[in-house]
Amino acid sequence: MTTTAAPGTALPAQAVAGADLARIDRATAFVRAHDTRSALAELLPDLDDCELTSLGRHLRLAHTAVLVFPPSLEALRAELAGRGMTPGETVPSVVVRQRLASRYRRPTAELEVGILHTRVPDAAAGGADEVEIFALPVPEHSGLAPVADAERAADHEAHTAFDLPAPDDVVLAGLSALLTDRAGARADGGGYNAHENATVLYFRTDRHRLELYAAGQHAAALSAHLRRSAADTTAEPADRLLRQLTGAWETQAIAVAAELRLADLLDAHPGATAAQLATETGTHAESLGRLLRYLASLGLLTRHDGDDGHGGDPGDAGYRLTATGRLLHADTPESLRPLALLYGGTFYQSFGHLRHAVRTGEEAFAELFGEHHFPYFARKPESADLFDRAMAASARMFGPVAELVDFSAAELVVDVAGGNGTLLGRVLRAAPHLRGLLLERPHAIEAARTALGAAGVADRCAFVAGDFTASVPAGGDVYILSRVLHDWDDRRCAEILGRVADAMAPGSELLVVERLLPADDSPSLAVAWDVHMLCNVGGRERTEAHYARLLADAGFDLVARHDLPLDGALLRARRR
Ligand SMILES: C[S@@+](CC[C@H](N)C(=O)[O-])C[C@H]1O[C@@H](n2cnc3c(N)ncnc32)[C@H](O)[C@@H]1O
């Protein structure tokens, strides 16, 4: 199935998508707002002042880069001209084209990626003055819309480039080591470009992709960098299996860090030692030091030797958060702390009974705790609250929904089993004319009312305590089922979809948010979550084709699919 916009949401044939223009504008704004030093500080927040100063001596901000999908290069040039930008000649891309071909298993001939370099008017002094735009034209009916959707969601190719005004092998190797060992970046390939006589090294951080561009050939630094890039996939089988067998230890180490609020403490006291953190948390200093070292090896913290600069006693080491570790901070928007506590707590216990689920096909959770997880959590307010917050923790998945769907003609959106209202809140904030209705089990209604109150939209929202297998409120223009169907087997899904279909008028739209199992062997978080559903919920993850069948049987046509962050997907279905 190709991705199509729902009726009423189609863009004029020759318009560049708003999401692409917004990304070009962000890249341009970055160049306008940053000199080399501030760009390094923003992109590599784990480095201290001294390290940033040293990096700044060797690097110069060169450009920011984005990949966009205009209907044609002419349409893109017209948009850029409107922004006072006149790109030079379009140069064919080799690297990005190749990466897209292997990522989406498409022939390179289908992917005519061009590169446009354009100067940025009013660029900041001491920084870059250029944006590099990779453009893959996606004319109507080209069949490339799914590639565009997936790339817009994942942003694999956006990067910021720095060049080395005075490159040599030693400097390049040292910069590469600093980025990987200290700044939490991963080596992400690179190469020698004989046409330009330049060596390019790529790095990926949790937030972004960086390029180091050095004139000349630096074979030793490049081959060390490529070895680091390949390290993950070339590990010995026994080494890889041993690492996998210790996965449960990682879950527990992270859960203990979350419980002790180490991220909150390290955010307030960067560089704190094990002894200082032990005093704050009332723990055993030497043992906490060993946990901190493990967390650093997992990439959640960076470790700094004591002030003598010669290694010192490990107990004197100070610790700082990486971007990954910061996600455990309790007050970060979209904090993953609740998920760490849930996966290291109740769901950890039930995963210990996975063999029961595999032997019998019944969920291990119910075998261990005596009931299905929804009634179990409902009886325990603290656990129910943790579950709601853990669901909201992956709300990054919902980010693009309000942009992808045109709600302008809708008046009422009904979120069926909307949890604590995170998605509905985002939709209502994005469309101020819209009213919402959230259907939930009685125990979850208060949490939703509070969360939507905090989001400032509760006055436009009705809260209905009910059971979606009995009935779903009628009268909505758009209905949402987010991460609901994966909780149930096909028979129960048919029942839920039947009640939703009963409530909906012909032609109205149903939005389904789920992780989709890939139809092939592509990696996806859905594969692991499918086992989680088996073990803990009694549901399953499904392929797009499987959802299409369930929807069709309940009276819906699946009309579009958009990829979302965190391997999520938005399926758009129309009531027949
Ligand atoms: C996995 S959560 C998803 C919550 C939210 N839609 C989201 O994406 O964050 C599933 C929700 O289904 C709700 N639920 C379970 N059984 C229900 C029922 N019979 N009627 C209404 N809601 C139900 C649960 O309370 C829970 O909040």
From TrEMBL:
<dbReference type="InterPro" id="IPR012967">
    <property type="entry name" value="COMT_dimerisation"/>
</dbReference>
<keyword id="KW-0489">Methyltransferase</keyword>
<dbReference type="InterPro" id="IPR036390">
    <property type="entry name" value="WH_DNA-bd_sf"/>
</dbReference>
<protein>
    <recommendedName>
        <fullName>Methyltransferase</fullName>
    </recommendedName>
</protein>
<feature type="domain" description="O-methyltransferase dimerisation">
    <location>
        <begin position="244"/>
        <end position="330"/>
    </location>
</feature>
<dbReference type="InterPro" id="IPR001077">
    <property type="entry name" value="COMT_C"/>
</dbReference>
<dbReference type="InterPro" id="IPR036388">
    <property type="entry name" value="WH-like_DNA-bd_sf"/>
</dbReference>
<feature type="domain" description="O-methyltransferase C-terminal">
    <location>
        <begin position="351"/>
        <end position="556"/>
    </location>
</feature>
<dbReference type="InterPro" id="IPR016461">
    <property type="entry name" value="COMT-like"/>
</dbReference>
<dbReference type="Pfam" id="PF00891">
    <property type="entry name" value="Methyltransf_2"/>
</dbReference>
<keyword id="KW-0949">S-adenosyl-L-methionine</keyword>
<keyword id="KW-0808">Transferase</keyword>
<dbReference type="InterPro" id="IPR029063">
    <property type="entry name" value="SAM-dependent_MTases_sf"/>
</dbReference>
<dbReference type="Pfam" id="PF08100">
    <property type="entry name" value="Dimerisation"/>
</dbReference>
